[in-house]
Amino acid sequence: MTFTLKFGMIKMVITMNVQDMRLELAEKLKENPKYSDLSEYEKSLQKEVRMHPENIDAWSLLAYIKLVTAASAEQSVKYLKKALRVNERTMSHRDYAILTTNIAYNLYHEPINENSLKDSDRWLKNAADRHSPFAETYYALGQSCFLRDEFDNAAEFLRIADEISDCDKYKLPYAVCLLQCGNYQEAESVLTCLPETADSRYFSAVLAYRLNDFEQTRRILQKMRDQNDKSDEFDDFDIADFYYAMGDYETYVSLIDAQPYTLAAVMTSPYFYSLSSLKREEQAEEYLKKVITENEENIQQASIADFESKAEYKDFLAGCRNEIEAYKKAYENAKNGVKPSIAIRVFLPERCWYIGCPQHYYEE
Known about the structure:
Blueprint: E1 3-7, E2 10-14, H1 18-31, H2 39-51, H3 56-69, H4 73-86, H5 93-109, H6 116-129, H7 135-147, H8 151-164, H9 171-181, H10 184-191, H11 198-210, H12 214-226, H13 236-245, H14 249-257, H15 268-277, H16 281-301, H17 310-335
Antiparallel strand pairs: 1-2
Helix pairs in contact: 2-3, 3-4, 3-5, 4-5, 5-6, 6-7, 7-8, 8-9, 9-10, 10-11, 11-12, 13-14, 14-15, 15-17, 16-17
């Protein structure tokens, strides 16, 4: 809120403390991640930006609330661009970086049109060119480079993000970029200074595997299994892949068999090959019969009434038939000794890069 007090010829302007509001919101979201009663906050912020349009923190938090409550990146971007337009001639590099980075965030996570991702990169580069003081800007640029397999550039941006940040949230993404660059010694030095988490253990296993230290890889994987490590980024199938890649087909098969899911056809080639290598032809044949039966039942039970269009119905039936043929091909290839290759999955750990996001306040 803005308050104006007059004392003779002196005019004093007091602006809303947006950081206090952000902290209050963060506390509520920490207690209840689904907290959504943001109408009073929105009203206060709307009033603040009308009375004090140079308050960029208020614009940014207002845009965040529009993103959450309206589920509309377009509405959020509208507020951020208005703030840019209103303050174009007077804003600092800091304020410019907040607005442009957050515009980029919206365009990246909820593309408005086919050019949104390119536009997101452009806004981020604008922020960096104006010497953004925020780690979020450089993390986002690193993420963009990582997804294009430009690992050297990604590592440089993540190094900057880590240097700017006063916490360790960017160290693991930086270590992953170093891994992908082949800078294993430097990656190890970063990984060893991090507290142990499911994700850090996963990448320690990746590092050990790439160094052909399979004994260390197995130790780390066993620890992950003992602690039932789970993450939003990887699952039990990713852990199983390590064992297949190391030629430990017994453990690989046991981990796959422990899953309650039927494997998609694209994932069955290493499974059938492992069973063939273990001389478990009967188990492989039974699995093949099972998945074929499941798909045939899906075809029989499908009704055109369950689909939005006849074309969608036909696509579903064709998909089931294609799955059956893919299962059969994977099974035959395994019988003929064709060994499928498998890549250990590497991902860049996700970090929120909306500057001033109250939901992730306690990660800073």
